[in-house]
Amino acid sequence: AAAGRALPSAGRSKWDIREEVWEHLEASGLAEFPRPVRGRIPNFKGSLQACCSLRELEVFSRAREVKVDPDKPLEGARLAALQARKTLLVPTPRLRTGLFNRIVPPPGATKEMLRRCATSQGVRDFSVPVGLDSKAQVDLVVVGSVAVSEKGWRIGKGEGYADMEYAMMVSMGAVQQDTPVVTIVHDCQVLDIAEELLGDHDLTVDYILTPTRTIQTNCKRPKPQGIMWHKASSVSSEMLGKIPILKTLRWREKQAGKDVTLQDEHPALADTSRAAISDEEVMAANPQPWAAPGSAHMGSDPINPKSQGSDTITTVYVGNLPGSLRVSQLKSALRELQVVPAALKWQGAQHRAFLDYREQGAAHRALSSLQGLSLGGNALRVELAKSQRNKG
C-alpha cells in the first residue's frame, strides 16, 4: 500500500514518534538503503517519485538558489535542482567543515553526470565551500524529516542539525521569514503531532511532498529568528565544540554586541575568539577517547572493566576489516561519523575491532552510523559484541 497505515501519535513524545516511524518503515518493507533507517532521516520506497513533485511547485520554478539536505531520500530533489540549472547548496554533513557547499556541475554535463553530482559522492567531488561571508540568497529550502504533520510541524532525527542550519542561514542573511521550506517523506510519515512538542528553535515546513500527495500546510507559526544561544534545547557546549563554523558565528555575534552566553556554558569551551578547535574540544563530552597520548599503540587497549564498572560499558564489534586497513584509518572514519568510542581494541590480524562506549545511546548511534559503511572495499559487519547480546 502506497500510503501505509496511519501511526498513532496522541500523548507521544518526539522520541516515541521517531521510534514508531522507523519501526513501521522497516516492518512494512518500505525502508530503503541505507539500512537500518533508525537514527537517520529515513530513505523509503517512492522517494524519487516524491522528489519529482518538486518540479511542479511554483516556488521551485521561481527559485534560483535551492538548499537541499544531504540525506539519501532527497537525492531526487538535488537532481531536480541540477537539471533545472539552479544553484544547488548542500549542507556539509554534520556541519563539520562549514555551513554548506555549492554544487557546480562540469560544463556540458550529461544527464548521467548530473545524476552523479546529486549523490553524496558527487557532492564531495563537485562542490565548493560557501563561507560565512558569501552573499548566498537561498530561495527554497528542502529538508528531510522523520515525521511531519499537515499543519507543518516537523520532527527530525533528534540531533538538531536541520534547525541549526536554518538558524545559521538566518544569521547569515541567506534566508528570510518568507523563504519556503519543503520536506519530502513517505505518506506514513505524515501524522498528527501535538504543537506543544515544538520549541522556538524547531523548523516548520510549508510544503510536504509524498509519493501520492502534495500538501500545502499554510503554517503560520514563525520560523526560527536566528540562533538562540541561551536555550539549552537550541545550542549546547558539545554542539559548539563539534561545529567550527558555529563557533566562528558565535564570535562574530558577540563582537556585534549580542548576548551569546550558553545555558550550559563550560569553561573549556568558553573562549569564542578561536575559529579553529582542537580534538580535545571536539571530544570534550567523551573524555579519554583513545589510549593515553604516550601509548605506543594508541587506542589499542580497552578500558579495564573492573576499574570502570563492566556494566557501564557497551561494546560494538566491527568485523570484515580489510587486511590492508590501518587502525588510523578506522579512527579517522569514527571521528568523521562523530561516533568516537571511549576505547578501541584493534585486532587487525583477525580483521576486527571492538569499540567501547560508556553510554548505551552512544553505542547505538555508532551501530546506526556504521551500518552500510565500506572501508578499503569491504562492507563492515557491525553489531553489539557477543557479551552485550548475551546480556540481552
Automatic annotation (TrEMBL):
Cite the RRM domain residue spans from the record.
Answer: 314-387
UniProt key word RNA-binding: yes
Q: Which GO terms describe its molecular function?
A: RNA binding
PROSITE patterns named in the record: RRM (PS50102)
The superkingdom of the source organism is Eukaryota
Task: Output the Gene Ontology cellular-component terms.
Answer: cytoplasm
Q: Which SUPFAM superfamilies match?
A: NagB/RpiA/CoA transferase-like (SSF100950), RNA-binding domain, RBD (SSF54928)
Q: Which UniProt keywords apply?
A: RNA-binding
Give the InterPro entries listed for this entry. Answer: FTHF_cligase, FTHF_cligase-like_sf, MTHFSD_RRM, NagB/RpiA_transferase-like, Nucleotide-bd_a/b_plait_sf, RBD_domain_sf, RRM_dom
Name this protein carries in UniProt? Methenyltetrahydrofolate synthase domain-containing protein
Source organism (scientific name): Nesospiza acunhae
